[in-house]
Design brief:
Blueprint: H1 2-12, H2 16-25, E1 36-41, E2 44-50, E3 55-60, H3 67-82, E4 86-91, H4 92-97, H5 99-113, H6 120-130
Parallel strand pairs: 3-4
Antiparallel strand pairs: 1-2, 2-3
Length: 131
């Protein structure tokens, strides 16, 4: 039960970057994939986790540039990889500047790890471009 309480506390203290990312991912808004915020796995809490694709997305603030934090992030990364979970890391500062690029990266990784048929309107657009 402590894991759930800790996850709730982390969700209540989300950063502007986490709020923005969650607005993209919540409620299966992102191509129908289900994401969880602050999902506990082992001793870690994953910022945004898609179980279907075993994909974790982390948003990093400036503290992640310091050597101690980088070491911690590497240990965490090894643990998650041992469980088959891939992590995509994005700097908070890039979310506003490179939003579309970040969304494209997430979508491509989801499709690579847990492919879903594209929505009908997308397939129609590709057919129109080919003709």
């Amino acid at each position: 039960m402590a894991d759930i309480e800790r996850a709730r506390q982390l969700r209540k203290k989300e950063t502007w970057a986490e709020k923005l990312m969650w607005s993209w991912l919540r409620g299966r808004r992102f191509s129908g994939y289900k994401f969880r915020r602050q999902h506990p796995i082992g001793i870690y809490y994953l910022d945004f986790f898609c179980e279907e694709a075993d994909l974790n997305m982390e948003l990093d603030g400036s503290q992640h540039g310091f050597p101690d934090q980088r070491k911690h992030d590497l240990e965490r990364e090894k643990f998650l990889q041992s469980r088959g979970i891939k992590t995509l890391r994005f700097w908070n500062s890039h979310l506003r500047r490179d939003a579309q690029s970040i969304r494209d990266t997430i979508f491509n990784e989801l499709q690579a790890r847990a492919p879903r048929p594209l929505p009908e309107y997308t397939r129609l657009m590709k057919a129109v471009r080919k003709s």
